[in-house]
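For the sake of transparency, this paper describes our internal protein records without simplification. Because each token names a local backbone shape, the row as a whole describes the fold. One such record is reproduced below, unchanged from the form in which we store it.
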Amino acid sequence: MRLTDYLDKGASLGPGAPCLTMNGRTRSYAEVQRLSRIIGSALARSGILPGDRVAVLSGNDPMAFACAFGIARAGAVWCPVNPGNEAAENSQLIRMLECSCLIFSGAFGSLVAQIASSVPGLRLLVCLDGTGSADVVPDAIGFRQWLDGPGQADDVLGAGGTSADEVVMIAPTGGTTGRPKGAMLTACNLETMTALTLMSYPFSGRPVYLALASLSHAAGVLCLPVMALGGEIVIMPEPDLAEFLALIGQYQVTHAFLPPALIYRLLDRPDLAGADLSSLQCLWYGAGPMSSARLAEAVRAIGPVLGQLFGQAEAPLVICTMAPAEYLMADGNLALERFSSAGRPTPLTTVAIMSGDGSALPVGRRGEIVVSGPLVMAGYYGDEKATAEASRDGWHHTGDVGYFDADNYLYIVDRTRDVIITGGFSVYSAEVEHALLEHPAIHDCAVVGLPDPECGERVTAVLQLRRGAAVSAADVRAFAASRLDGIKAPAQVEFWADLPRSSLGKVLKAEIRARLSGGESS
């Protein structure tokens, strides 16, 4: 399926049905479909050819999201760019992907000016709203002016079918651990992701999906299964949790996605108890590990609607899933023993645990999580070395360490680069974090290894406390020691007001190590 097929399928189920809604303004499927054709015509008229890469840099905006389907109409490749990244990272990404066109929101005009000056291959700059663009990015053309050129909306390249192995999207992997890469996702990859999402989670009637997180990442591709069912996508321009709760009741939202850090914040809100959440069928969470204790709190406070997604840019969203029903035992009690798992492999995906020598490991043994199947990317754009490294032995290597239990639930214990070697023993930071997050005073935490002259690395915990809570470092160490082997309990405990995070909400452990190694603490 082409990207446009998801939109066209929704339109076939009711052209007048609501498709994209923001700030009370709703665009129907017919309107978005028509707009995508006009955008596709404008791209073709501007010399954008099938296979060209077109970047979109914007906050959550219906027009920016509609551009993804216009790009597909022209046979080009959609390259979503996160505006939360630094200019240098986005410049590097757009240059690396050899993008011919950048469509951007005027609010990011200054950022685009920096990018355009460092990416000579960009031959077309289109400003979605024109705000501030004339002064800051003089070479940009306004969106409406660009669309109003000659040519009919239906005269669009790419009207035929798309082969399953054709690249339709390049997803940035993020630059939190070094040079960003672009995961080439094919029509087959996204079709597999969509099918697995629809078969793994509850959907009844026309879904209403509330998009709070950035549409340039997981929240964006989650729109595809919703559109395939003719559902409505309610877009939030800013991540406001009070508005999030209000919109669920107003639009009778059935599906939403939040990273764990935002779920923690949601649970701490006094207005959660009075919110109308009766319409929710599934509240997805992902993009990072979640505390088992906070997850149990969420199921009790929000209802049995939580659904976990485990995936990567390289194998989007649904390597493993855990549907709402799996959080409960047959007798209705919480299935607490599986709350720390990442779910079970999806039907079209093969997941294994591999040792360092490339051999498969049995149930209970820890090793690198590897994946194969039609969900896995075609490779990294322009980086044969990284592609070969990630796909050695015929498997996609996730870089995560984990194990399976006897019921085929996957447990992720660390990133391979985050394993702490102390006194000759391996300590998995995620295991320590899960134990610490059971403490009622701890809102969130990160565990890293710091150089130590005696034991090689020192287990160090950086804690973010709940509002109004207080606890001593000695109490934290004692709490951890009561739940972990002595060597795993943190030897050093730091208290910070906030943990550094990426624009996707992931904790930046490299930044934590750098700050602590430089002697900075709080």
